């Protein structure tokens, strides 16, 4: 089976750069895949695509060495298994608040005896090799999203789940849960303390931590802080930003984005 390059990079102590896909288009996906990201995530939670479009997008990513990931819309085993069978090499699962929820998530990503994933890797076998099922438990990435105060309170228990590869911090929801208002690239003392607590728990249990970012400078700060995966904006945000900047430049208007999200 083809190995997962993300896992080797993390084992080497290095950070990876992830892109985020909201647009249900094979062409925009292919453009993103050729941009040089280490991985791309098809976002089934807040993106505009359905399952068939997501499969086509996974196929477009396969035109490169970029690792294909997917964020599921919820912690539902059937949806997780279908995306893995379709060729996602990792799953990001939203709103994991307890150890039991994390166990359910990880179990859906692992074949017996490590989990409950049903055997039928339709596309995954074709693109990753006939021995996919024998090695998938070691290669498929599992990232649990930490987005609430409840998750923060349970972070050590969640981190201890066998087979979990890492945390993925949802900064908007986490700040909303902690402080009553969302936002990206947060520098608030309370938020940064929560981030450090999540990172410390991950290090205690030998897993990685990732986060969604709105700017290159903030992503660089997160890597310096010890996080090993950073996501920069989304395809729709990048397109919107470039379009607004181009139009304003032609009209002689100084571009001043007031957006506090990466979407």
Task: Write a compact overview of the structure shown.
With 263 residues, the protein is of the alpha/beta class.
SSE blueprint:
Blueprint: H1 5-11, E1 16-21, H2 26-33, E2 39-43, H3 51-61, E3 67-71, H4 77-85, E4 90-93, H5 99-109, H6 122-128, H7 132-139, E5 141-146, H8 149-153, H9 155-159, E6 166-169, H10 171-179, H11 189-204, E7 208-213, H12 216-225, E8 229-232, H13 235-250
Parallel strand pairs: 1-2, 1-8, 2-3, 3-4, 4-5, 5-6, 6-7, 7-8
Helix pairs in contact: 2-3, 4-5
Give a description of the structure:
By secondary structure, this protein is α/β, with parallel strands linked by helices. It has one domain (5-246): Alpha-Beta Barrel (TIM Barrel). The chain contains 13 helices and 8 strands. The chain has helices at 5-11, 26-33, 51-61, 77-85, 99-109, 122-128, 132-139, 149-153, 155-159, 171-179, 189-204, 216-225, 235-250; strands at 16-21, 39-43, 67-71, 90-93, 141-146, 166-169, 208-213, 229-232. The chain has an 8-stranded parallel beta barrel, surrounded by 7 helices. The protein is globular. The mean pLDDT is 96.
């Amino acid at each position: 089976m083809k190995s997962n390059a993300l896992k080797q990079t993390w084992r080497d102590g290095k950070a990876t750069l992830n892109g985020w896909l909201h647009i249900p288009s094979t062409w925009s996906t292919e453009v993103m895949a050729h941009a040089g990201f280490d991985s791309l995530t098809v976002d089934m939670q807040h993106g505009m695509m359905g399952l068939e479009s997501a499969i086509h997008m996974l196929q477009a990513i396969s035109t490169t060495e970029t690792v294909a990931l997917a964020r599921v819309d919820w912690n539902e085993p059937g949806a997780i298994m279908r995306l893995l069978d379709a060729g996602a090499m990792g799953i990001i699962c939203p709103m994991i608040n307890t150890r039991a929820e994390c166990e359910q998530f990880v179990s859906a990503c692992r074949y017996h005896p490590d989990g409950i994933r049903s055997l039928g890797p339709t596309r995954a076998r074709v693109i990753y090799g006939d021995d996919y099922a024998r090695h998938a438990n070691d290669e498929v990435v599992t990232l649990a999203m930490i987005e609430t105060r409840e998750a923060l309170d349970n972070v050590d228990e969640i981190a201890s789940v066998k087979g979990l590869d890492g945390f993925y911090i949802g900064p908007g929801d986490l700040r909303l849960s902690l402080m009553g208002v969302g936002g990206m690239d947060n520098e608030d003392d309370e938020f940064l303390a929560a981030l450090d607590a999540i990172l410390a728990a991950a290090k205690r249990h030998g897993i990685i931590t990732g986060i969604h970012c709105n700017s290159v400078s903030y992503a660089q700060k997160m890597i310096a802080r010890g996080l090993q995966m950073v996501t920069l904006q989304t395809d729709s945000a990048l397109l919107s930003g470039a379009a607004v900047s181009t139009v304003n430049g032609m009209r002689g208007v100084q571009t001043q984005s007031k957006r506090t999200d990466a979407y």
